[in-house]
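Morning F.,

Quick status update on the modeling queue. The single chain you submitted on Monday has been processed. Sequence for confirmation:
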Amino acid sequence: MADNEILNVLSRSGVLLNVSIRFWRASKKLKAEDLGLDPDTVTNHLISLGHKKLVPPDALKTFALIESRAHALVDSATFPFLGGIARFLPNAKLGAVTARLDGLEQEFSFELARFKAQYASLRVDAARAWWEAARRLVNDPDRLVATIEASMPQADGLDRYFSFQTHLFQVAVPEGTSQMELIAAADQRAVADARNRAAQEAATKIRHGAEQFVADSVATLRQETAQLCDEMLQSMSSGKTKGVHQKTLGRLIRFIDEFKHLNFAGDREMEEHLERVRGEYLSRTAEEYRDSTAAQARLRAGIGKLRDTARELAQQDAGELVAAFGQLGRRRFNLAA
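Structure tokens below.
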């Protein structure tokens, strides 16, 4: 495979996604001095001061919920790229994922406005609650409360503790430099050679990493197919609703549709197996399966065969598929020429 072909195809097949969400955790790690204790007399293996909440957890739970939803969305629609430096988002999922992230960002902004509106009263209530607790715990409650209040940001400085950022970018191979105006003429050749060597080494590592990424992504989807089949078989063996529930069939139908959207690497073999199962087994309703013991047996056999096939394929070397993926770039270039 020629240098950078697979990277060129990846850059056309999707984007790299990074979602960063920050919000104030409202916690303070207490020191011995905060409690009026001599730090030299505190035995760490017996006493743990730890992080203490500055405001009631419910005041920030919506931010945590938005964060978990955003990360769950990204994890379900992307693949970790080069050890997790970013997530690879296939083009087929780009519109839906970014639209949902935009919606979550709007929820985050709305929640921030609501939190800021009530923050002044939260701050007063927190100081009062801490004073009530401190006067029962320490000899100098005012000192502890002053430490707590100092740890709580002022209302006009809250924005810097909150952010919801979505970044889309593409991987690019570093290039050598030919513009060396700021470097003395005598040093230009040595610096240029060093930069070019570094760029070539980085390009090689990225290319190899990209090839492994494509192979891992193929294996992941195949493993997820096998796992879903296992879960379906377990559900059908549980005895509920005579063994077959419409939700169970619906999970596989939705998975097959999702597989197509996530199958940027072109795993036609696995896709064909899934479509065959759709055609042979998913045209019946759960009620129809419950009315026929023979049909249920055929369904279980079909799901079991799909599981075993997916497991076998997940263990296979995906080198040929990765090479075919890279060849897409070569064919595109030939057509363009």
